[in-house]
Design a protein that fits this description.
Length: 132
């Protein structure tokens, strides 16, 4: 008989979709990075704030934030889940707009990012940071 080890569940935070969610997500990431010994959490805080803010403004239902290190290269990955069906897209440049630049900025600061649908509906928006 063989035994299998269940994968470890990544640190997870469930948030109500309100204006406190981005602050709580930033604190969650900062505390986790400190626990991991990652001193520079600036980009991580910006990324989680942008993704949670988009989820709060454009998604539906509770917001789930998961942060883990990719087991292949050790780089941090931020995932933000919500029940909304819309998919985030980088908007064309509009110098007159007062919002809509956050995703573009985030995309320039991370190694990679994307969106994947959830089987139960909704989506996960993820971003892989460039340094541990």
């Amino acid at each position: 008989m063989s035994a299998a080890v269940a994968p470890e569940v990544p640190p997870t935070l469930v948030l109500d979709p309100d204006d406190q969610a981005p602050r709580l997500a930033r604190t969650f990431l900062a505390d986790l990075f400190a626990e991991w010994g990652i001193k520079d959490d600036y980009v991580g805080r910006l990324v989680v704030c942008e993704l949670v803010t988009n989820s709060f403004r454009h998604g539906r239902g509770q917001i789930v934030v998961r942060i883990f290190r990719d087991e292949r290269d050790g780089l941090p990955v931020v995932e933000v889940w919500d029940a909304g069906e819309g998919r985030p897209e980088i908007q064309p440049e509009n110098y007159a707009a007062t919002s809509g630049r956050g995703l573009l900025l985030m995309a320039e600061l991370v190694r990679d990012w994307g969106v994947r649908p959830l089987n139960e509906g909704g989506k996960v928006v993820w971003a892989k940071l460039d340094h541990p």
